[in-house]
Every structure is written in structure tokens, then in C-alpha cells.
Please model this.
Amino acid sequence: MRFDVITLFPELFEAPLRTGVTRRAFEDGKVDVHLWPLREHATDAYRRVDDRPYGGGPGMVMLVEPLERALRAIRAARRDDGAPAPLVHFTPTGRRLDQALVEQFASGSGAILLCGRYEGVDQRFIDRHVDLELSLGDFVLSGAEIAALALLDAVARLQDGVLGDPQSHREDSFADGLLEGPHYSRPEVVEGAGGAVPEVLLSGNHAAIARWRRERALELTARRRPDLIVAARQAGRLDAADEAFLASLPL
Model:
């Protein structure tokens, strides 16, 4: 799959795309990332890509013309691929990015990612060209490069052969609609209260361990993200044992 990124700061992508386990996906071309510095598509002597907003107010607005020139260049470069490439704009007003959407991208052909800056992008460009607006959550970043990197990382780790254990991402938070429960490693006992590994994890009883993990995931999700319990129930992901355990939890 191919991702084309329109950005004012391509250097922000250098280390994340070359570091950590997900670098395998980028180095092997499983997730093929192309960076498009927006200032290269400005035509004036100052390489201007933004200007003051009509109506007044603070901040600057990214201009339509440089963005359209960058988009035309990307479309031309992608023409041989023959695969559709939706244009994704990262903005606090967009749909919240979640694991289900990440999985859609991970099994698709890629996208064009627009990294906005300043006060935002001229609405006329959004109306003409943007297919999907995404947000990481209810907060504001100084630029969308972090959001684009979050999507790229999430997509990369789902590619075959990227994680050391192919089962890893199937047990992540949100993989089955729940938050992931706690993990423990060596030593068995750490000094202080609550310093011992739960006995069931040392038992070798795989069915009991699986049930313990399921219950910890249910408990954590019910406490921190009850909305996910509602969604899991509506989707039919909870069985009778799950419901009985949830009913036993103190309110």
C-alpha cells in the first residue's frame, strides 16, 4: 500500500519511519510512504503557503493553490497504481480515529494524508477534495504530522511479518472491542504491597489464564470505557459468562 503525505515539515517523519519494530513495514515497502513538502509547490519568491484569514482573527490559513498543485502531482505519481487514494485531512473536527478504521486502512491500498498547520486549511480545498476528516481525540495539536504518524504506525504494525509474534495485535486493546488487561513479567515477587504475580498466571492452566485475562479486560473496560461494553454487547461479542462477570462487579 502507498501513503502520500502533504506536509510542511517532512523532517518530522524521518526518525519514526526508521525506528522501532514498525520500520520493517516501511523499509520493506509493505507501507510505502512518500513525503511531499508543500513549499515546493508554492510559486512566489517567498514560497508562501498561507495567508491571513478573511474576517480577521488570529492565525494563518493554508492556501488552496499550493495544496492543489501538490495534490495534482500526487495524483499523477499514483496514476500507474490504478488504486483509489482517498484524501484524508486531520482536524479536531473530524471523525475520531479508531481501531476499526485502522484495520480498514491496513487492508486497503493506502491514502493521501494532508497535514494541516496554523489556523487550518481553506475550506474551499476541503470541500473540493477531502474525502475523510480524522481526529485523534478532543484536543488540538500544533500540526497534523503527529496524527499522520499515528495512523502510519497503527497501519504498519498490522502488516504480516512486522511484529515478532503474529498473535500480538490480535490481543491488543480494541482488537475485540475491549481494553487490554494487565501484564506481568519476572521476577514473580516485587517488594511492596501487591508485589506478587497473580497465581493463576503461574498455574499452567491455559483455560483459567484465558478466563482471568478476559475478566480483567472486562473489568478495566467497564470502569474506564463503559461505552465499549455497550458497543460490545450490541455487537454480540459478550457471552453469558461475560455478562455474569460484569453483573458481579461492584457499581
Q: What stands out?
A: The chain has nine helices and eight strands.
